[in-house]
Amino acid sequence: MRIQELNSETTSDILENLLKRSPNSYGEFEGRVAEIIENVRTNRDEAVFSYTKQFDKAEINPSNLVVTKEEIEEAYELVDADLLDVIRKSLVNIRSFHSKQLQNSWFQSEESGIILGQKVTPLDKVGVYVPGGKAVYPSSVLMNVVPAKVAGVPHIYMTTPPGPDGKVYPSTLVAANEAGVDTIYKVGGAQAIAALAFGTESITKVDKIVGPGNIYVALAKKAVFGHVSIDSIAGPSEILVLADETANPKYVAADLLSQAEHDEMASAILITTSMDLAKQVEKEIEYFVSKLSRSAIISKSLENYGYLLVAPDMDVAIDAVNEIASEHLELVTKNPFETMTKIKNAGAIFLGEYSSEPLGDYFAGPNHVLPTNGTAKFFSALSVDDFIKKSSIISYSKNALEKVYPDIVKFAECEQLTAHANSIKVRFEDV
Prior knowledge:
Layout: E1 3-5, H1 8-19, H2 30-43, H3 45-56, H4 69-78, H5 81-99, E2 106-109, E3 114-122, E4 125-129, H6 138-151, E5 155-160, H7 170-179, E6 183-186, H8 189-198, E7 208-210, H9 215-224, E8 229-230, E9 238-243, H10 249-260, E10 267-272, H11 275-291, H12 295-305, E11 306-310, H13 314-324, E12 328-332, H14 336-340, E13 348-351, H15 357-362, E14 388-396, H16 398-414, H17 418-425
Helix pairs in contact: 2-3, 2-8, 2-9, 4-7, 5-6, 5-7, 6-7, 8-9, 10-11, 16-17
């Protein structure tokens, strides 16, 4: 990583570089994804099982598509007892945090005969995608399932790719069972998204699909949006650390690398007002990279999307932070709570040197499904809100409507919508 001076030109160049990682920039894959979706939509189970054989080398059919109770029991025997304990502790924290997001229906009535309100209803069927392949992510299971359960979603279906032996990672199954998933399908990739979006003979059509995945999964979610709802089109992981001279360079370096190890396209950025800190962080990064197991991935990530930026003052630094709108933002300053009041755009904000980003990934309770690629300017973390819908309630008595009907007629006639006006006027023809 090279130390650079932070200015408006630097910020612009970084934003342009980071946006290249967005799934919206990978048009060459869209044709293949569209082909998979159309095949699944037309041929249903047959296409799903064929793609599972082709991509996952697994023989899946209607008889072994759904994870059985026996397979879940076997998973509990294979998962380390200490890990199970951690999963359960994390589950308590995640459920507690998301329970505070619950919304209730409300109504207000007036003596004039007007009743207005809002009816809150959970979605009926939700599909949760959980990646397989290179790594296993039980934490992703918890983060996607728990807010749906808290919202009151009655039917949660999970899809995840099987191994060549037709089995799913034990820790994934245990996390799903602990979180309350109703049905687990052994299918992954774009074909899983298509199956959830349109339904097959063996896979239930859902109302919304959530969960991370590779570029094919991301583009498939984008393609089926409108047929179903989705959470977001997630890009590669990213972290931005805003630090001053009080920060511990070893902690800062370690936190930057915690995200760089995810993916060669992950982004890790330090913005600081201290040149001394930037130089010390650079040295610590070199040391850690030489020791960590995923050093090849980390090195590539830092080479392409890693930055050590020195700002002339904290105001310039904060302006850049808000412009980049990072998925994860750590504030390691003398008074991080004061600094936080000036932050407008970030997926999740971590305050102080002991609030390391992995705390949010696994345990603290807030959701780790966060907006990426600058979308924190207008998107939020996954929450209970993503699993409910709101219906407006309107009730007017005759007396209440009589007082305002000329105003409504006037508005309708202004827009030349005479049938609108007529539907009001016919109620008062005798007036």
